[in-house]
Amino acid sequence: MKSVQSTKRFFNNIMNGDIEMKPIIAVTMGDPSSIGAELSVKAMARKDIYENCKPLIVGDFSVMEEAKAILGMDDIRLNPIQDVKDAVFTHGTIDVYDMKLIKGSDIQFGEIKALYGDAAFQYVVKAIELAKTGEVDATVTNAISKESINLAGHHFAGHTEIYAHYTETKDYAMMLVHNNLRVVHVSTHVSLREACDRVKKERVLKCIELANEACRMIGIEEPTVAVAGLNPHAGENGMFGHEEIEEIIPAIEEAKSKNIKVEGPAPPDTVFPKALGGWYDVVVVMYHDQGHIPLKTVGFVYDKDLNKWKAVEGVNITLGLPIIRVSVDHGTAFDQAGKGTASEISLVNSIQYAIEFSRNKK
Questions:
Q1: pLDDT at residue 4 above 70?
Q2: Phi, psi for 56 (deg, rounded to 5)
Q3: Which domains does the chain have, with CATH numbers?
Q4: Number of other residues whose CB lies within 10 A of the CB of residue 352
Q5: Nearest partner of 71 among 93, 45, 47, judged by Cα
Q6: DSSP of 112-154, one letter per residue?
Q7: Which residues, other chains included, contact 108 with Cβ-Cβ below 8 Å and sequence gap of 6+?
Q8: Is the pLDDT score of 88 beyond 80?
């Protein structure tokens, strides 16, 4: 299948070192009371990361020291810096752009606090600043607590909205990826009632265009875009709703006139098995859960017998920004924080996507 082959080629190119120049990737540490620091240490301990990029953590040196101690990784050295030019980018040493906001010894894991929310927010803003000034080539974000950052007075629904605000971006969209399943959202962090109201031709068309462009950025030369319907059975010719007729189909027709290979509106309950089977390279979905549920169903695997998560995979990419932003597709996992058991795979995958996007942007 085309999608599977493209995904395999994408990761093979990265892992084989098929890269002209290693990009500098800024990784935010995430909420200090979450698993973010632990995941950052685990990911930076991998030699293959340094073979393909120059990573640095934007966060707090003290919290990273605490995470390193929890993991028992005494052989890893931390290098606190105040300027990107002071980074050494060497495997075995983790460069930490030290914001000096939180003491690791004071952290209460799993707690919702304005102090933690403000720190996590400042890490993100600093990473955006470094990308805007060209000091780093891409940014990758660990999870933040939306509740904590709002308690701190930063009233944003999530990373996507923070990035849009600080880059002054109006037309943007969220893309979730797990292997060959990709979804782009017409709306995300709004109520379901408001999400229905946001299904407008202009917005659907923009998401089709962003989805098509994103697929090309990861090496899919002629992407096929599927557009999911909003209503059951994609409206059944108006029997179950008129959004498909009035808004979605006109957007699809205009996208076709722009030589984008696009199909739909497809019934939401069958479009994802087809995408997994390689019929489509990306699916444009109408609201948050329509895209998140199928992707997390295949990316998040819980082992009932072992009473733990076997896999928490997938990445979140913000499309339409002037800078590159890729994120883990999981939350803060407060219940696992401080235990050293959380998997870093989603973070590693996010860094890999950031590398590929950086290459193609250049």
A1: no
A2: -145, 150
A3: 17-168+322-355 (3.40.718.10), 170-320 (3.40.718.10)
A4: 23
A5: 45
A6: --HHHHHHHHHHHHHHHHHHHTTSSSEEEE----HHHHHHTT-
A7: 33
A8: yes
